[in-house]
Specification:
three-stranded antiparallel sheet; globular; about 50% helix; mainly alpha
């Protein structure tokens, strides 16, 4: 399978960034939740599990539930624009969320140095990579929908209130980073390297599980692979 190229560059300084979300207390007997709380400063309300780990076993990314996530401000805004969210909770399309602060800072540096544009140019010039990324978007959307409980799927499949179809589209049809699947088919756009990398690392762990269970593995995210290669080349002291 073809991969996005990753040329060497000068070492980059890491800058801090902290996501904003409602929080819940970590369970005293759950080391994963304790570790995530130390990384983020809180436990996301829709935390499900650790989905990827670094070489030392610490969390790199978590899986989240597609509803009832985000900051209180975000949830309030969702209820104002999508009244149906009062029934099912605010939609949260990000299935895999990067939690490692050092990796997050490094990826922010990559974004600041224009790598989103570089990746998009490579995608536009390579139909095979576009197809690979499109498959990743489709698998991401399918996995997100399957992670919903049957009662929530039933509510989202309804047509009333009027904003329910909009919420269903966000969770059933949008791709990685909430990208519009129809636009992705022609543009190969990349919105957020953090989200692509969280998907890539989580998919790596799932591929190992699939191999152990003799199941068909998920497609590796080429954008996440590009980011991983850059992190290895440009941040030699970063624990991946």
């Amino acid at each position: 399978m073809a991969a996005l190229s990753s040329s060497s560059s000068s070492k980059m300084l890491q800058a801090a960034s902290t996501p904003d979300s409602s929080d819940v207390p970590a369970l005293d007997d759950d080391p994963d939740q304790t570790a995530v709380q130390e990384q983020l400063g809180y436990i996301p309300t829709n935390y499900v599990r650790v989905s990827a780990r670094n070489a030392h076993g610490a969390p790199v990314a978590i899986q989240t539930y597609p509803l009832q996530g985000g900051s209180r401000r975000r949830q309030t805004k969702a209820m104002e624009s999508m009244p149906s969210s009062a029934l099912v909770g605010a939609p949260f399309p990000t299935l895999y969320w990067l939690t490692d602060p050092a990796i997050s800072k490094a990826i922010a540096e990559l974004e600041r140095h224009g790598h989103v544009t570089l990746i998009e140019k490579e995608l536009e010039a390579n139909p095979e990579l576009q197809a690979q990324l499109l498959t990743c978007h489709e698998e991401y959307a399918a996995d997100r929908w399957k992670s919903l409980t049957l009662p929530d799927q039933t509510l989202l499949n309804g047509s009333e209130p009027h904003s329910m179809p909009r919420i269903k589209y966000m969770l059933h049809d949008s791709g990685i980073a909430g990208i519009d699947m129809m636009k992705c088919r022609s543009l190969g756009a990349v919105k957020c390297l953090h989200t692509h990398y969280a998907h890539y690392r989580s998919t790596l762990d799932r591929r190992l599980e699939a191999e152990a269970d003799s199941c068909t593995p998920r497609t590796l995210n080429p954008v996440g692979q590009y980011v991983h290669d850059r992190l290895m080349n440009d941040f030699e002291n970063l624990v991946l």
